[in-house]
Amino acid sequence: MPDCESIREGSFVLLFLDNRRSYLVRVEKSVKFHTHKGFVEFDDVIGEEYGTTLISSLGVEFVALKPLLPDFIYKAQRKSQITYPKDVALMVMFSGIGPGSKIVEAGTGAGALTTALASYVRPDGCVYSYDIRSDFQRIALKNLRKAQLERFVDVKQKDITLGIDETDVDAVILDLATPWLVVPHASAALKGGRSLVSFSPTIDQIVKTVEAMRDCNFVNVATFECIMRQMQVIRGKTRPHTLMTGHTGYITHGRKASRSNDEDPENVG
Amino acid sequence: MPDCESIREGSFVLLFLDNRRSYLVRVEKSVKFHTHKGFVEFDDVIGEEYGTTLISSLGVEFVALKPLLPDFIYKAQRKSQITYPKDVALMVMFSGIGPGSKIVEAGTGAGALTTALASYVRPDGCVYSYDIRSDFQRIALKNLRKAQLERFVDVKQKDITLGIDETDVDAVILDLATPWLVVPHASAALKGGRSLVSFSPTIDQIVKTVEAMRDCNFVNVATFECIMRQMQVIRGKTRPHTLMTGHTGYITHGRKASRSNDEDPENVG
Amino acid sequence: MPDCESIREGSFVLLFLDNRRSYLVRVEKSVKFHTHKGFVEFDDVIGEEYGTTLISSLGVEFVALKPLLPDFIYKAQRKSQITYPKDVALMVMFSGIGPGSKIVEAGTGAGALTTALASYVRPDGCVYSYDIRSDFQRIALKNLRKAQLERFVDVKQKDITLGIDETDVDAVILDLATPWLVVPHASAALKGGRSLVSFSPTIDQIVKTVEAMRDCNFVNVATFECIMRQMQVIRGKTRPHTLMTGHTGYITHGRKASRSNDEDPENVG
Amino acid sequence: MPDCESIREGSFVLLFLDNRRSYLVRVEKSVKFHTHKGFVEFDDVIGEEYGTTLISSLGVEFVALKPLLPDFIYKAQRKSQITYPKDVALMVMFSGIGPGSKIVEAGTGAGALTTALASYVRPDGCVYSYDIRSDFQRIALKNLRKAQLERFVDVKQKDITLGIDETDVDAVILDLATPWLVVPHASAALKGGRSLVSFSPTIDQIVKTVEAMRDCNFVNVATFECIMRQMQVIRGKTRPHTLMTGHTGYITHGRKASRSNDEDPENVG
After folding, report:
1. In a domain, A2, yes or no
2. DSSP at B95
3. Which of A59, A156, C108, C153 satisfies CB 3.0 to 4.6 Å to C131 for a cystine?
């Protein structure tokens, strides 16, 4: 996401119609982009600033927004495994990472979480992203290239439950089916006092993961979920939305310590 | 938060006792740190790695963790105005900022949000942080210095409802009582297509802010809240915690556009 | 819902297929009931006990359940205005009503709430149910007859915002667009110390209603919402459902008093 | 809760100070009731209507409310095991009970749930309430007497996990540590098509209970929790309360059927 403020050939733009419909597209010369609201001509935006309005052939307004991190996350989604920007945001926060961090992540999936991590470790950090499936990783790389973040990621087609190659890493961030199998490897890979963060949809997964973390002397272990509630904000009619996503998953985090962990398990909070 | 992996004189460490009790302290030679569980001697950790265990004079174990961003946020709290790491994480995400971003923030308060923003814009971005109260800003600067992030922040003792000095900024992030008064200034200060994010506890505030954003042609305007639920994770006894924080505030975000905003207000989502 | 334990001609049964599909039907001699899973013959259940299994012409099992109150509530729904069993249950509880109570309700709508109230005031109480629309009341009466509760309800085609005919009532229960207009009438109709309960989807409605209640000297005024979360319970895969209803409405309740209400408005809860 | 509208000697009244402080007391002639806001004299309310105001010796207003069901539930609480009116309301609704129902309940505890059940089965139903602890049952009887509902309850000092004496019951309602052990007995005791409802705080309990119910051919089995959120309703400052109860327990319900239960476990909802 480097800073080229006017839209150029090759730039990605988010063509925004309304809160439910927007399109992440690459601007190409002499090309028309077709939607059910008519087509827009990319030549009309080349040289313009982000935020400019386009009128489609059917007279409908689109706004050419600069794609930001949440857009790349939303658009990287596969149906089979959705990571929500809210969960990505919280995993980033509780991992404690930032510019310059060296991170291990698994699984790569379609690269939604990878994109966020890569964005925040710039310009001199690195994300080592493990996945056993090369087909997912090809999609992830395509998504990372759209966000111009591929050079901050080392995609590794390996089974992370068998081990982590890296050492002295600043954080290990997991979104896979069996995180508890990775906990001992994460403990070996992490610098002292640093964070392991894991995302899992089911209770069974969090119980096994928390037990594995306690067994490996992690401290400050805690699990939470974030329930996100959209509001309809209209004067005189303000209220929460009728429909909402009831559950995505639980986030578990903790920190590597050298002490024998005899902390009271009730003191999770 | 630069990378000095062994603990040295002058380093900050998080002395961790359990999930409810930890202390963010500066290590000084020949100094004892007193707690209700006895004292620890800083000389014992100088030269050690983060994550090492200390035994207090009463035989209680403390872990000397490296303070991470969520710790600086928690420890920067004033009772009068609490910004939660969850809300900070979501504001950072929906602002679309990252390393190199130029951000306007108000109010500074005790610097909890400022610390997070500064951490993520490193090494070549900048946070312009407005507050009318110099006493808060002194506390904020103290907190920023603990996190070694003060050089990424320009603290301005000014009333942001009267105007924003900066232009071409990547995001405007608000946590103050009357965000709607800042919306026109934010529109003037922002680059095209970039984000305004605002945090407010009450319904009245979000209605006024959303209306001001629509009046100023922001698009993709949405408001949500994040309800965070801690889990007690113990095999056979797993359940959500009995007590939880029911509400911190609503997060509203949207993007600057040049079009006349005739979007259907129902399409918020 | 009188007690005729074997299924007879004229009985209502809930033909249960699975948690998403069930049918509230009246048993008639020599009649086939057609579903997308084949037809079942009512003659097969006449004389059987509730809970018996029927095999459809396509070999699919249906269970002939006795319809209970929540079934009548679900099946009375119109798309335009849904009252959920959870909200009905909480309104009944906070109204303090029970067998013998004399209740005023508005609006009747399709009779979902009316059905619940009638069920609980049996055998010697009465529900006075106001609605301005006779078409809704016809539907409500039809639904009440299915539950054999019509004799406990007096359906009145009147605008309750203009006044309540009854006096010395045990509770006033409102589910209509402008409850604040009914508050003074409710105060006049209620016995001392008894409850007004109101259901409204929007913030604006609850603010106006709570203000009207304080103006009319109601005490113990409180507003809450109930967020209902379904669980997927399968060993090893237990978790909240992905989709949920995010909001139905707020429930406000309070009690008629004769004192001048100078209670601290912060003390709500 | 019979209908004696003016307050008499021996009546119970709820002396209401504010939403956080109220007292359920028995009115006695020539007696003073002492609070930290001064004393009130019961002679002042004898002969008055419910809802009347009393001025304490320190000039503070109290309202003499008629105690309603939710008051009896709140005031019956023991610290060790809290049943919330919201959960009682939902258990009553999903049990499908009403006036005339014959119910089995366990454990009695302090009688909070028992009080609600007794109130709703009046005037010709009955609650058979099992508990192994006679000390709890003495407290429960005391609480039932306050609400004048003891004649609708048969308190049995027996271990319900060993069997249920009653047959042809309309509902079995459980709030005890091991509900899964009661499921087969509930199946034997229930009329066809009727409901078993169980309340449990932990995931482990609901998994075992749901499995036991499926094994015993219950259909329409579902588990949910109700998260109750109080609102602060003040014009211009409306918002959810900061603190809330995050979890009380899960409610599981289902109906007795005679079919072999081959329903898809995913279809819960």
Report:
1. no
2. H
3. C108
Return the residue matching tokens 């306007």: B104
Q: Which of D16, D194, D228 sits opposite C66 (nearest CB)?
A: D194
Integer Cα distance of D236 and D149 in angstroms: 44
Domain ranges, residue C16: 12-67
For D65-112, what is each residue's pLDDT tens digit?
A: 999 999 998 888 665 556 789 999 999 999 999 999 999 999 999 999
CB pair distance less than 8 Å for C244 and A246 = yes
Print burial letters for B182-204: b (CB count within 10 Å at least 16), e (below 16).
Answer: bbbbbbebbbbbbbbbbbbbbbb
SS3 category, C34: strand
The chains in contact with chain C, meaning 3 or more Cβ pairs closer than 8 Å, are A, D
Q: Which candidate in A224, A237, A239, A244 is best for mutational testing of the C interface (most C CBs within 10 A)?
A: A239
A8-20: string of b/e by CB count within 10 Å (b at 16+)?
eeebbbbbbbbbe
Q: Residue A122: what are its φ and ψ, rounded to 5°?
A: -55, 155
Q: How far is C9 from chain D (nearest CA, A)?
A: 18
| Intra-chain end-to-end CA distance of chain C, in Å | 36
Could you tell me where the beta strands, DSSP code E, fall in D81-237?
102-106, 126-131, 153-157, 169-174, 190-200, 218-232
The residues, ordered by sequence, that sit 6+ positions from D79 with a Cβ below 8 Å of its Cβ are none
Same domain, D32 and D129: no
Q: What is the CATH number of the domain that holds D45?
A: 3.10.330.20
Q: Is the ipTM of this complex over 0.95?
A: no
For residue B66, give how far its alpha carbon lies from the nearest alpha carbon of chain A (Å). Answer: 6
CB pairs A-B closer than 8 Å: 274
Nearest to D153 by CA among D179, D185, D119: D119
C115 within domain boundaries: yes
Whole-number Å distance between alpha carbons of C141 and C147: 10
Same domain assignment for residues C194 and C169:
yes
Q: Is C79 on the interface with A (CB under 8 A)?
A: no
Whether residues C242 and A245 touch (CB distance < 8 A) is answered with: yes
The CATH number assigned to the domain holding B178 equals: 3.40.50.150
Q: Is B244 on the interface with D (CB under 8 A)?
A: yes
pLDDT tens digits for B187-221? 999 999 999 999 999 999 999 999 999 999 999 99
Tell me whether residue C241 is in a domain.
Answer: yes
Domains contained in chain D, number: 2
pTM, entire model: 0.92
A233 touches chain B (CB under 8 A): yes
Contacts of A238 in chain C (CB under 8 A): 202-204
